[in-house]
Design a protein that fits this description.
Blueprint lengths: L8 H7 L25 H8 L14 H14 L3 E5 L2 H12 L5 E5 L4 H10 L6 E5 L4 H7 L4 E7 L11 H10 L3 E5 L4 H4 L9 E5 L13 E5 L1 H14 L5 H11 L2 H19 L5 E5 L9 H7 L6 E6 L2 H11 L4 E2 L9 E3 L11 H6 L6 E5 L5 H15 L2
Parallel strand pairs: 2-3, 2-4, 4-5, 5-6, 10-11
Antiparallel strand pairs: 1-7, 6-7, 8-9, 9-12, 11-12
This protein binds pyridoxal-5'-phosphate.
Pyridoxal-5'-phosphate (PLP) binds next to α4.
Length: 395
């Protein structure tokens, strides 16, 4: 097989391929097999002793999964990686492989809902504590450091508030206190932002979102420093959150189009956000590449484009939010993002409906907050649907 290492990462994401079989297939075949055969006991002994990198069992490794990992490492500029069944199992694996009883971590306070539950409810059960700190409050980050702090955990941009955290500052802070810097890069993808170039030790993804890009499969991946990935690999190999070969095959194909897809998603998101900003029924629009975004300068410094998601506050609060979802004709109302199809969600009446108004506000969910994941339809069609729904839902 010809070497791909001299190619641009975008070309590598297209050209990296597991070795061809005797069938000389152009497209990588699907290796649906639980285990791999050894002709001799000695070869199996050597594989188990880590003396060779032969595949043994698909909970440990599989050619389709390896191809996906290699492409992600090329895109993120990472030494090594491990792929998991979902984004949450990647985050869980990174925490439990690297932390132990008595350790402490610091996380940005605006994080994905299940990550929030993991760090506030489940980590403490195992004696691992977490301090949540607001983005950008440098004094609060400093004050949160304890002698037992091991890791900082960032999401940028955050879901759903779209806060942007400064990767350059975060890395200086992590190095100063000798902490592992982990970044959830799901919203940006490596095409828009490469945390490892800023010094991050680990980068985590939900591959379910932009990486799949077509709402088909769940997946997750952790890439980064070889020594840390080794620990994560050993933990995951023994606890079992492996990515399925089929999902890896789908996701590896998806990476071949990630660059062109993200260009269009971001172009659409910016165009729609700019248009809706001027709509009389919209109080505000938040998007990393709109000048009014509180961390606009940081977003411009560390991101190539603003991403595919924006959020807006519509006038009329909770009731208007509900009516808005019902009035949409083209956009999908569904609990996902990063699809070819544009998606709208209203956290206050759905994902966060069990919280009180005050609790919702404390995590940044205002009553009329609508999150839009810009799809690949023509921007004009997306704008037309949102505009007609706004007119029907105005309070
Ligand atoms: C969706 C999401 C996750 C969790 O990923 P799953 O694949 O659903 O487990 C983690 N982080 C962010 C930012 C997400 O949007």
């Amino acid at each position: 097989m010809s070497s791909t290492s001299k190619l641009d990462p975008i070309s590598q994401a297209i050209r990296i391929q597991t070795e061809r079989t005797q069938q000389r297939e152009h497209s990588t075949p699907l290796y649906l097999t639980s285990s791999f055969i050894f002709e001799e006991a000695e070869a199996m002994r050597a594989a188990f002793a880590d003396e060779t990198d032969d595949n043994i069992y698909s909970r440990f490794s599989n050619p389709n999964v390896d191809e996906f990992i290699d492409k992600m490492c090329a895109l993120e500029g990472a030494e090594d990686g491990f792929a998991t069944s979902t984004g949450m199992s990647a985050i869980f694996g990174a925490f439990f492989a690297l932390l132990k009883q008595g350790d402490h971590i610091i996380s940005c306070s605006s994080v994905f809902g299940s990550t929030y539950t993991l760090v506030t409810k489940y980590l403490p059960r195992y004696g691992i504590t977490c301090t949540l700190v607001p983005a950008g409050d440098e004094a609060a980050w400093e004050a949160a450091v304890q002698p037992n702090t091991k890791m900082i955990y960032l999401e940028t941009p955050t879901n759903p508030q779209l806060e942007v955290l400064d990767l350059e500052w975060s890395n200086k802070f992590a190095k100063k206190h000798n902490l592992i810097l982990s970044v959830d890069n799901c919203f940006a993808t490596p095409l828009l932002q490469k945390p490892i170039e800023y010094g991050a030790d680990l980068v985590i993804h939900s591959a379910t979102k932009w990486i799949d890009g077509q709402g088909r499969v769940l997946g997750g991946i952790i890439v980064g420093r070889k020594d840390l990935i080794k620990e994560i690999y050993l933990f995951c190999r023994n606890t079992g959150p492996a990515m399925s070969p089929f999902n890896a095959w789908v996701l590896s194909k998806s990476l071949e189009t990630l660059d062109v897809r993200m260009q269009r998603h971001c172009e659409n998101a910016l165009k729609i956000a700019e248009t809706l900003q001027k709509h009389p029924n919209v109080s505000w629009v938040k998007y990393p590449f709109l000048e009014g975004h509180p961390q606009y300068a940081i977003a411009k410094k560390q991101m190539k484009l603003g991403g595919g998601v924006f959020c807006m506050e519509i006038k009329g609060g909770l009731e208007a939010g509900r009516k808005f979802l019902d009035a949409l004709e083209m956009l999908s109302v569904t609990a996902n993002l990063g699809d070819t199809r544009s998606i709208a969600s209203h956290p206050a009446s759905t994902t966060h409906s069990r919280l009180t108004d005050a609790e919702r506000l404390s995590v940044g969910i205002t009553p009329g907050l609508i999150r839009i994941s810009a799809g690949l339809e023509k921007a004009e069609d997306i704008i037309a649907d949102i505009t007609q729904a706004l007119e029907k839902s105005a309070g």
